[in-house]
Amino acid sequence: MVEFSKLNAADFVGEDDELDEEPGEVIESAPPLQVGEEREINSLGLTKKLLKRGIGWETPEFGDEVTVHYVGKLADGAEFVSTRDRDKPLIFNLGQGQVISGLNHGIITMTKGETALFRMPSELAYGVEGMDGVPPNSSVQFEVELISWITVVDVCKDGGIIKKIIEKGEMMGPPGELDEVRVKYTATIDDGAIVAKTPEDGLEFYVKEGHLCPALPKAVKTMKKREKVNLVVQPHYAFGDDKKDSNTSFRSFPQSSVLRIDLELVSFKPVVDVTGDSKVLKKILKEGEGFVTADDGASVTVRYTAMLEDGTVFDKRGLDGTDAMEFVTDEEQVIAGLDRAVMTMKKGEHGLLTIKPEYGFGNAEVKQDLAIIPPISTILYEVEILDFIKEKAPWEMNDQEKIEACKRKKDEGNLLFKNGKYRRAGKKYDKALDFVSGDIPFGDDDLKLVESLRVSCWLNTAACCLKLLDFHRAVNLCSKVLDVESSNVKALYRRAQAYMETADLHLAELDIKKALETEPQNREVKLLQKSLKQLRAESNKSDAQIYTTMFSRMTKDGSTATKRLKIDNVENNNKPLEEVIAMELEKTAVSSQPPEEGVAVDSS
User: Fold this and answer.
1) Whole-prediction pTM value?
2) How far apart (Å, rounded) are the C-alpha atoms in residues 108 and 101?
3) Which domains does the chain have, with CATH numbers?
4) What is the distance between the terminal CA atoms of the chain, rounded to a whole angstrom?
5) What's the angle, vertex CA 164, arms to CA 158 and CA 166, rounded to 5?
6) Could you write out the DSSP letters of every residue in 458-499?
7) Which residues contact 547 (CB under 8 A, 6 or more apart)?
8) What is the tens place of the pLDDT at every residue in 410-440?
9) How far apart are CA 456 and CA 459, in angstroms?
């Protein structure tokens, strides 16, 4: 094309190097131009006059492929270039040095169908060299019509997969790594030969498993439903490793071939990793209503078909004349995988669950109504949630309802704790606390009871944390209690237990002493004190062994500390050096402790 070659030979200004503002910055921060209005749109003197308004608000970006008509004139009106003379528009990529800088920066402010007049100084046009019909250092003007553009995406940012968006998709998308997609495509090489093509209705594959070539799943993860694109794939993202998909038929071709793929993302089914370890996967076959999910504690009604991986059905509910299943979530009324998945579902949602044995029936052989489930079986549930009723939230309750809900959750937690289900018990106590949170105002008549419930739930949750080896949270919860009741023996006792587990023996001793001041005959606290003494003795013995090893390496003319220990050893009837060091460590520990709390008060 004559006009294209003329523009390409010009002395271009580097867009990235010399323009400080972002493309379109001034336009975005100013009110839209009115037809006939002219405005400077960057700091280098580029102006724009709107001649005809375009469609919508979207504008192209650098890298996009645009189709334009333009007429170029000098400042005196003399025409030097035009695409309209031959009625053949110019197609080029913005920001790639194919046209002058002023045109690039003008066109990125235009909408589809818009016509505008751009005036630009020579620095944004043909510079000191000029061109045919354009003297050096000339200001010029271009009347430009933006006919259309194709969004161009460098998928991997290395030029290996260039995606041109031929038809934009719907709002849904893009698919994720776990999702199942349905695509249609035709793949060709440079000579136009078709090397692979899908059936008329497309084909399905899981994104993470890939298909055809490495480029395909990478491109699909950038697409929306119903989007149509053209891919230009370099050999290292095509078949450079000579690996072909076993499900695709194509003829052989050189490994160095550039692959061109016309691709449509027909649809996709989102797959959710429910448990975060890929052991309960939910493929959404039909989206549910709204945004609210069943969550924990909801009364749900579902229907499902349960089957083994080979398709053997072992249970049905709500289908073929059977009653739908009703259960309360997070109450262990169904297998963990089904329970956890249903808590993520909306009313009317239809999904296919893949449940590994850890969240299913485990190592046991289980006899069901329709079939026997072998040990260590992965099972499938095609499930639809028909309805659910969520528990009332605290803000939906009056004070009395909140207090009763707290008591009920606390009692449920107590039962779970007695049965050794500490994690679920802790969740019940946490939920109980939600109903009596300090952020919720209560009447004066209820404050004492509410505070008592809070303290009880904090203490019980701390007990769960100790069982679950979450010692730092146990310390925090007991400290909350002690902020309210400074001499609460249970809080002191449990915090001391946590401190002993984290080797904070001095803090544990302080809590034990304070607890015994309050209840001198408390048997559990006394036993804990005995355990602490044993733990401290073992710690000192361990330290002594370390120091003994250190001292044994010293010469006879060793340090003063070594000589002093030897003298102490004589005074202690030549006890083993290890034992003497332990005694010294004990003395040091005792002498470094602060006075007991409350001594001054007691003496007065």
Assistant:
1) 0.67
2) 11
3) 37-149 (3.10.50.40), 161-242+254-268 (3.10.50.40), 272-389 (3.10.50.40), 394-531 (1.25.40.10)
4) 105
5) 165
6) HHHHHHHHHHTT-HHHHHHHHHHHHHH-TT-HHHHHHHHHHH
7) 581
8) 999 999 999 999 999 999 999 999 999 877 7
9) 5
